[in-house]
Amino acid sequence: TKVTEHIQRSEGQTLFSIEIIPPLKGQNINQLLDSIEPLMEFKPPFVDVTYHREEVIDKPQPNGLVQRIPVRKRPGTVGICARLMERFKVDAVPHVICGGFTKEETEDMLFDLHYLGIDNALILRGDPEKSAGVFRAKTGGHAYASELISQVRDMNRGVLLHEETEATPTNFCIGVAGYPEKHFEAANYDTDLSYLKKKVEAGAEYIVTQMFFDNQKYFQFVERCRAAGITVPIIPGLKPLATRNQLTVLPRIFHLDMPQELVQEAEKCATNDQVRQVGIEWGIKQCKELIEFGVPVLHFYTMGKSDNVMQIARGVF
Ligand code: FAD
């Protein structure tokens, strides 16, 4: 079932969903699946699974030279989607990224997803390589999410990259990312919004936002999207503050503002357990207001921990 169909069927009731990150290469998958099992109590109709690009590592050789090797540190997105569907009877939403893939490799992966019966994909450009700092497309790959959306749309029409004859169409419902506090590379808010609109015109059927801690940022974003003629559902992405360190780390990584009130509350805490509790209370307050506003889904970035998301969900559902 498509994410948009879940939203339609909910008839205005706010749904609960989560995003998970594949484990580091070589770690046990059951640990990840066990960690989200308690959250199934809140009946997420779909679960997102992130995708991570290759990173180049420098491996010293016996001859003294250094070999540069591309490695995917968190492989397994497609397999995890299959396990999720089987174990929890939820729809899986794999993230599909431009970075690190040629168009042909992407086409093959989309077939894997299609053969598994997956009808959803969150289409992203992907983060820049850590070592490079700026995004570079792989030769023969896409540079922007909007280009990848066009490829998926073509497959949904039975058009493949190098085949003359029509293929069996895929049936992907396409989601994309949106940034209430602007994407960090965009020159200004309005250009960022115009590119978001381009993604919707290319075929995106819903938007999931970057995390934010100040609901006003989300409300303004929705207002600006609607004024720009973007009418698709806008799902808020949420992450509970969990450590004092995150007060500075999250703004740095995700380019967001921490509200002063939350900072002050967290700074009063003597331990990270107390900060976690502040994060839970803030999350509950945020979610109640978002439900009141009429958001279609509350989408949580679990980042490998689910106890605080659990407590927030208990507080609001
Ligand atoms: P795009 O929409 O392609 O935009 C990238 C930048 O280019 C923006 O500044 C935009 O304004 C600009 N732009 C867009 N189109 C054009 C154009 N045609 N011409 C010029 N400029 C343009 N990263 C991962 O690696 N894996 C994941 O699984 C993942 N999941 C995510 C999930 C969510 C909900 C969110 C919000 C982000 C996720 N990310 C993930 C991070 C994301 O890949 C990065 O934020 C990335 O830097 C931008 O991706 P995008 O799809 O928004 O890019």
From TrEMBL:
The protein's UniProt keywords, in alphabetical order, are: Amino-acid biosynthesis, FAD, Flavoprotein, Methionine biosynthesis, NAD, Oxidoreductase
- Pathway, per record: Amino-acid biosynthesis; L-methionine biosynthesis via de novo pathway; One-carbon metabolism; tetrahydrofolate interconversion
State a single Pfam family of this protein: MTHFR
Catalysed conversion reaction: (6S)-5-methyl-5,6,7,8-tetrahydrofolate + NAD(+) = (6R)-5,10-methylene-5,6,7,8-tetrahydrofolate + NADH + H(+)
Q: Does the keyword Glycoprotein apply?
A: no
Parts of the chain that traverse the membrane: none
Report the domain of life of the source organism.
Bacteria
Q: What is its EC number?
A: 1.5.1.54
Looking at the UniProt record for this protein, which Gene Ontology cellular component terms does it annotate, in alphabetical order?
cytosol
Protein name from the UniProt record: Methylenetetrahydrofolate reductase
